[in-house]
Amino acid sequence: MTVTNDFTDRTPFSTNALETRADLAKFLGEILDPLAAHTSPGGARVHLGYTGTHYDVIATQLEGFSRPIWGLASLLGGGGEYEGTKRWVDGFTNGSDPENEEFWGHIRDKDQRMVESSAIGFSIAVAKEKLWDPLSPEAKANLEAWLGGINGKEMPNTNWLWFRVFANLGLSKAGSSRFDAERMKADLDHLDTFYIGEGWSRDGPEGVVQLDYYSSSFAIQFAQLVYSKLAQNEDPERCEEYRNRARAFALDFVHYFDFEGRAIPFGRSMTYRFAMSSFWGALAFADVDLPAPLTWGVVKGLQLRNLRWWTKQAGAYNSDGTLTIGYCYPNHNITENYNSPGSPYWCCKSFVALAVPETHPFWTSKEAPYPHELLETTKSLKSPLHIVSNLGDHTLLLSSGQQCSYPVKQSAAKYGKLAYSSAFGYSVPVGNGTLEELGGDNTLALSDDGGETWKCRRATKEAKLEGDKWLHSMWYPWKDVEVETWLVPPQKETPLWHVRVHRIKSSRALSSAEGGFAIYGQGKDGRALEPSTGEEFGTHEKGGEGRAASKAGVSGIVDIGSGQRKGKALRTDANTNLMVPRAVLPTLMHQHAASDKSVWLVTAVFALPSTRGRVGAKAGWIAQWNERPRAPKEITALMLRAFTGRR
Question: Each residue of 271-329: pLDDT tens digit?
Fold first, then answer.
């Protein structure tokens, strides 16, 4: 019996083919329409829910108003129309008026209003005739004063500086006396110090090691591309530099997407969802000359396939079509304390392609599949310290060295895991008492209190790529516990496996639990997976191996070292994983006595997602499961020398 849930899995957008510019405009309209019922009488605030953030409730309602403007302004700037545009024009009038009850409040130091000012500045810059010109002289003066209030205020030393650039860019295009050219140049000059080469920028000054989607679609690359279009006449040299950076970056960034359109979840702000792909539309907006093997047909496919995939994720939307807080389903466990009900509308950046004329080759080119030259490949990315692979129809990255430079909820899960996958996502803790609560996929979790609490890799030291072959890092869960980790990507001989080697030196007794990829944990009857030894759906536990197979594919883990660890198919607590609310996690577990000698763990991790329209893994996968990889001989030699005492 197969469970069908068409009545729950439908979305308001899933029938949209998303092949043409008109299709994309229709999708945007269907995203904007439901907001009308949640908009204040004066249009300045959008109230979508009651959950809290570290900033005030008025700022959350401004967020609900402003973020959809990324899409609306792109549509209008590209010559399109939207019936509900008046809501935002009225909102500009009333929200910026200090005497109006819907006033947004003046911008203060490090204020969330700074973030939201960027979309408003963008809207004036690209859709002045539709959003600025209709305002009365008094409304224009109020909006100028409100936007200009960002100048002279203290800002975080991060991508936030781009928000002030965009506010000033809008003021400049409006011919406002509030435009501060000196401030904008200083911000741009400082933002350029974040650049580290090969197209990549840090999200902050030297010492910051965050290179996630904020370095690309969420903020920096997107902003650079939009600026390079809008400021070409005023700042041509910098604009050309930004286009050059985008060309270099694109050749790395393409590896974060799979051939079905999914991007690899990594880092924070996952609730922004298809904002991940906005970089591809921004390339077209900025008229960048593409580097081979990218073509406009390829870029169009990368953008539209990602959007198509998201139109089919029912849990991403409430029943009225508004966006939920979460990823593939409503999930507050994954969020940060800056995620309000309006935050997900940052995804509207991906509608920037609507600002691109229909005569542009982005729209006139036939959509092309993922570049053939980049399929079945592995690439080392030196700047983010990632190795990305799509061997065996599985797009994943191995990661070492990244960490959040300030407190972020679940940062160890968002930056410190050993591997991340476009198909299986990642998991976050929902508690701190059991392995089930930990959601420890792709981690080596350690406990010094018999399993009462667990520590995973968070702050990684001395991380590096070794010969473009593997990642090597040191990490210290306690001051007297040293862990050295090697991450070896899939090889063409064993494309469904990657290998991990850990050396643990600890003067205290430890429990260890190492997880593979978390996978959908229900069977064909919709009930929890039952034990199985073959290719059919189910779980498998045998000695030093654990495995789970379901409609999502197969995930497994094997101790290929001592073989002493116990394999388990662990059912994690609900709502730990970004992709599925009910997951099973293949795990290896062991107890380690205190010792002055190192313990070596050698692990093989198996993953085969369901792809190309299949339900479950392709037939015959069990043969690949039985074809185990080995640790590289160079690392094996290190282990041998450690055991024999030789140098």
Answer: 999 999 999 999 999 999 999 999 999 999 999 999 999 999 999 999 999 999 999 99
The residue type of 478 is W
Q: Is 476 buried (19+), middle (13-18) or exposed (0-12) by CB count in 10 A?
A: middle
- Residue finishing a domain among 340, 374, 408: 374
Tell me how far apart the alpha carbons of residues 179 and 164 are, in angstroms, rounded to a whole number.
11
In a domain, 148, yes or no: yes
Query: How many independent structural domains does the chain possess?
Result: 2
Burial class (CB in 10 A: 0-12, 13-18, 19+), 127: buried
Q: Are residues 189 and 42 in the same domain?
A: yes
For residues 387 and 348, membership in a common domain is answered with: no
* Residue numbers of the domain that contains 448: 379-644
Residues forming beta bridges with residue 381, ordered by sequence position: 386
Given the structure tokens 């190309």, which residue do they identify? 612
Give the separation between CA 221 and CA 191, rounded to whole angstroms.
11
- Name the DSSP letter for residue 562: S
Tell me which H or E stretch contains 96: none
In this structure, the answer to whether residues 285 and 389 fall within a common structural domain is no
Could you report the per-residue pLDDT of 528-586, keeping only the tens digit for each?
999 998 999 999 999 999 999 999 999 999 999 999 999 999 999 999 999 999 999 99
